[in-house]
Amino acid sequence: MPIYLSSHHLKMDEELCFFNQDTLVIKAPKKTPLILRMVVLLFTMACGVYICLVCLKQINPNKTMIKFLNIKVIDYDNESCPDPHLEQWEIPYVHYPKPRTFERNECACNPVRYFAILSMQRSGSGWFETLLNNHTNVSSNGEIFSIPDRRRNVSSILKNMDKVYNLDWFSSASRNECSAAVGFKWMLNQGLMENHEEIVKYFKKRGVSAIFLFRRNLLRRMISVHANSYDKEAKQLNGTHKSHVHSPLEAQILAKYKPKLNATLLIPELKQDEETAAKATQYFKTTRHIVLYYEDVINNRTKLNEVQKFLGLPYRELKSRQVKIHTTPLSNQIENWEDVQKTLKGTSYESFLADYQVSSLALL
Ligand SMILES: *[C@@H]1O[C@H](CO)[C@@H](O)[C@H](O)[C@H]1NC(C)=O
Ligand SMILES: *[C@@H]1O[C@H](CO)[C@@H](O)[C@H](O)[C@H]1NC(C)=O
Ligand SMILES: *[C@@H]1O[C@H](CO)[C@@H](O)[C@H](O)[C@H]1NC(C)=O
Ligand SMILES: *[C@@H]1O[C@H](CO)[C@@H](O)[C@H](O)[C@H]1NC(C)=O
Ligand SMILES: *[C@@H]1O[C@H](CO)[C@@H](O)[C@H](O)[C@H]1NC(C)=O
Ligand SMILES: *[C@@H]1O[C@H](CO)[C@@H](O)[C@H](O)[C@H]1NC(C)=O
Ligand SMILES: *[C@@H]1O[C@H](CO)[C@@H](O)[C@H](O)[C@H]1NC(C)=O
């Protein structure tokens, strides 16, 4: 009979509090010093709070009661929809947007989850996003903050997010009425780190879930960054720049370029990348989030099931047509391989050198 027992406890505590208060008051001289009066007051308040907590604990075992209370407190955006039978913790993350630009029609009562893919350039987030968008019920709208004007100040950032989450953002990826998860891709250097406080507040208020996507091998990322910026200048594919390719031939052409890395800057730069990623996860640790690594998603497709579960999506097999650009061993991809090898030997980054895990030129 745990409930009976705790109500008994409550009585004991109550008596204890009042008893102590009485003795204190009785013992006090007529001209009670202000400090003593304050002590008595604080003590009484503490007792009150304690009693309240004990009372709340007694309600706790009755789960249906709590659920009932919460559903009353948190308004659904569309109250005429039937109860979606969610776990209690899920409620803040489920929404019924009312787009201004169209009607959700038969899907008006399908709940929608909000997400943001937080990543760094050349970490596989483009590929990851095409995989997500292969799901009928996902709209991931690309790097909306790659345009500087949209991230010039916090109010502009929040306004653009409002538009995405209200389903009023239009991109080639936007589905219409039957989206069950909507979001976009955001690079850490696109106003995210500078405005993290406001953004975290927004994520918590609106129930946005963060999907971190990082790359374990930061050396491969660095090569990719160099190769991509070289191609931006040189436009190797018939005069057009492509950051993602769709055929093995295109991939081979782009992989011909071998960057030369500045050995002096190598370790400081790797360290900086590592710290940026750590700082970002630290900033967002109080939001609902998941941390993924590109290498893990490539090597283990069940990671994608984990993501679908995280977003409350019905499970689908997800496919992308993008081809990986760099598939040969690292030693063939860096012009000054010897230098790089010498610099990283014996440091915590040595493991980046011996990395053959992604080796086949597969259509992913
Ligand atoms: C709310 O859901 C009902 C279906 O139960 C739908 O007819 C109505 O249009 C929805 N309202 C909004 C604003 O989405
Ligand atoms: C998912 O990818 C497959 C294979 O490329 C394609 O046939 C299908 O249409 C895609 N589905 C969506 C919703 O994009
Ligand atoms: C924020 O930036 C937008 C777009 O650049 C601009 O139109 C707006 O006036 C700015 N607002 C503030 C408060 O600075
Ligand atoms: C997914 O989309 C289809 C239509 O494309 C719709 O029938 C279905 O209800 C949607 N599922 C969810 C969970 O929203
Ligand atoms: C470049 O253009 C030519 C002729 O239009 C075409 O045959 C070739 O495949 C193109 N190369 C690539 C890499 O797109
Ligand atoms: C490497 O970077 C340092 C610092 O920016 C610079 O002083 C040095 O000249 C660079 N070395 C090469 C080989 O470019
Ligand atoms: C693949 O990922 C799943 C879920 O993320 C995990 O449980 C499983 O152990 C992984 N398998 C391998 C071989 O790493």
From TrEMBL:
SUPFAM superfamilies in UniProt: P-loop containing nucleoside triphosphate hydrolases (SSF52540)
Transmembrane in keyword set: yes
Top-rank taxon: Eukaryota
Assigned keywords, A-Z: Hydrolase, Membrane, Transmembrane, Transmembrane helix
TM segment ranges: 34-56
GO molecular function annotation: hydrolase activity
Stored InterPro entries: Nod_factor_sulfotransferase, P-loop_NTPase
Gene3D superfamilies: P-loop containing nucleotide triphosphate hydrolases
Identification of the protein by name: Putative P-loop containing nucleoside triphosphate hydrolase
